[in-house]
Amino acid sequence: MVHRPSRRRRTLALCLALMSSGIVLAGASSAEPAAAMPPLPTGGLVEVDCSTGPVHLNLAWGQYLLRGKCGDVYVQYKYAKVYLESAERLFVLSDDNLVMADTVGRLVISSTGSTIEVSGRVGSVATDRGCCNKLRLGPTRRVVLRDQFTRAVFKRLDRLVVRGTHNRVRVERGRTRVTSNGRDHVLRLRRA
């Protein structure tokens, strides 16, 4: 059997090739037009300085490197790749994004199909109306999962509230207080 890449992967490969050649695929939002974004360098990576205030990332297929300690970061467009050191509040509001960070104070996810990895500490996490997200987070204080089919792995987790349906949560170490509503959840909690 010959493996054919999915339509989404073919489209992603085409858009990444266009971005690296200097052709920009931009989308506008009502909050801030795409023309206000910095121009893409030849590598396709947009560097953003977080010291200027809240950061709104709204370029379709964009790749962002956020420098410094960020306050509020809003990922508002699909298929973005975001790399950042730290953020006080990170809002993932659109679908199919990849977000990688060192530390996040508060993480709010209202998307479908996003992958979020935080290697360091996370204060709190809230998901809402999403589906099929993948989370891999460091030590976390509190998590409220309200969506469905989310896969989450935590290094340590103090408090977990699971709602929705078909969520999968794994905690690698520590003691976790759990409240589970909804149905068909799979919870794997390891004791220290």
Q: Care to describe what's here?
A:
The chain has 1 helix and 13 strands. The protein is mostly beta strands and 192 residues long. It has a 6-stranded parallel β-barrel with strand order 5-6-8-10-9-7. The radius of gyration is 17 Å and the shape is globular. The N and C termini lie far apart (45 Å).
> How many helix segments?
1
Q: Poorly predicted ranges (pLDDT <50, ≥5 residues)?
A: 18-42
Terminal Cα separation, in Å? 45 Å
Mean pLDDT: 81
| Principal-axis shape | globular
Helix content: under 10%
Rg from Cα: 17 Å
User: Largest sheet, order of strands side by side?
Assistant: 5-6-8-10-9-7
Order of helix and strand elements from N to C terminus: HEEEEEEEEEEEEE
Q: How many β-strand stretches?
A: 13
How does the major sheet shape up? 6 strands, parallel, barrel
Structural class, judged by helices and strands?
mainly beta
Q: What share of the residues does DSSP label as strand, in percent?
A: over 45%
Kindly list the characteristics that best describe this protein.
192 residues; mainly beta; 6-stranded parallel β-barrel; 1 helix; 7% helix; globular
Concise synopsis of the structure shown:
The protein is mainly beta and 192 residues long. It has one helix and 13 strands, in the order αβββββββββββββ. It has a six-stranded parallel barrel with strand order 5-6-8-10-9-7.
